[in-house]
């Protein structure tokens, strides 16, 4: 499972909230070393990969390309089941978010969008954004269709549904590269 999002969207807070139910090991965090990727053990055989936030590289084409290559390579891993995408509810889906969704869906990965910081909007404004994002996701006409929900790490909104999505996604077989009779 991978979790991605634009820098400052609320990804770290979402990871902390989502993984707080157990004392989780941050398996690749080593002092004195800068790591591009952090892995969190959700359960045996189930890891959450924290992808580097995007947005920081908006101005620098080279960095943006490097980021794109890294993400594209990660999305090719057969063990990857799905992508949770953290988006600031006040901004909604932006072009880099849609790019990531397109890559993930090309790989037939399941995608779930957390509209984070939902506590920053009134209930009706947050629901309006959710409806707009769901309509946009439906218009992408990929299967499986990407889903979305409101989320607030601070208020705890949507925590249970986000965990349910993670559990379902991890429990299902990988959608890609399943052997067929023709492969043998
Ligand atoms: P990241 O860069 O995507 O990992 O984002 P962070 O989790 O570090 O959060 C970026 C900023 O948004 C910080 O100032 C957080 O306190 C704030 N933030 C994160 N989650 C929430 C939330 O649920 N509600 C509110 N109001 N602020 C949040």
Number of helices: 5
Characterize the quaternary organization of these chains.
single chain
What's the helix-strand series? EHEEHEHEHEH
First and last CA, distance = 28 Å
Strand content: 15-25%
Q: What's the CATH H-level homologous superfamily?
A: P-loop containing nucleotide triphosphate hydrolases
Q: Percentage of helical residues?
A: 25-40%
CATH names the topology as Rossmann fold
On the 0 to 100 scale, the average pLDDT is: 82
Number of DSSP strand runs: 6
Number of separate structural domains: 1
Instruction: Describe the largest sheet.
Output: 6 strands, mixed
Which stretches are low in confidence, meaning pLDDT under 50 for 5 or more residues running? Answer: 25-34
In words, what does this structure look like?
This protein has helices spanning 11-19, 61-75, 95-106, 123-139, 159-171; strands at 2-5, 38-43, 46-50, 82-88, 110-116, 147-150. The protein is of the alpha/beta class and 184 residues long. It has a single domain (2-171), classed as 3-Layer(aba) Sandwich (Rossmann fold), CATH 3.40.50.300. The protein has a six-stranded mixed β-sheet, sandwiched between helices. Strand 4, helix 3 and strand 5 (110-116) form a beta-alpha-beta unit. The protein is globular. The model is unreliable at 25-34 (pLDDT under 50). Guanosine-5'-diphosphate binds at residues 5, 7-13, 53, 116-117, 119-120, 152-154.
């Amino acid at each position: 499972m991978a979790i991605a999002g634009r820098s400052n969207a609320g990804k770290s807070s979402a990871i902390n909230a989502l993984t707080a139910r157990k004392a989780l090991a941050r398996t690749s965090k080593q002092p004195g070393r800068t790591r591009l990727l952090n892995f969190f053990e959700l359960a045996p055989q189930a890891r959450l990969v924290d992808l580097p936030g995007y947005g920081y590289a908006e101005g620098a084409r080279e960095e943006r390309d490097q980021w794109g290559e890294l993400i594209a390579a990660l999305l090719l891993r057969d063990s990857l089941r799905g992508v949770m995408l953290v988006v600031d509810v006040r901004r909604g889906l932006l072009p880099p978010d849609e790019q990531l969704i397109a890559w993930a869906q090309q790989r037939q990965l399941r995608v779930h969008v957390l509209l984070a910081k939902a506590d920053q909007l009134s209930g009706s404004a947050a629901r309006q954004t959710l409806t707009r994002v769901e309509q946009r996701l439906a218009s992408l006409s990929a299967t499986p269709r990407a889903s979305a929900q409101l989320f607030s790490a601070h208020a705890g909104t949507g925590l249970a549904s986000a965990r349910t999505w993670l559990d379902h996604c991890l429990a299902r077989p990988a959608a890609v590269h399943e052997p067929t009779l023709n492969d043998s």
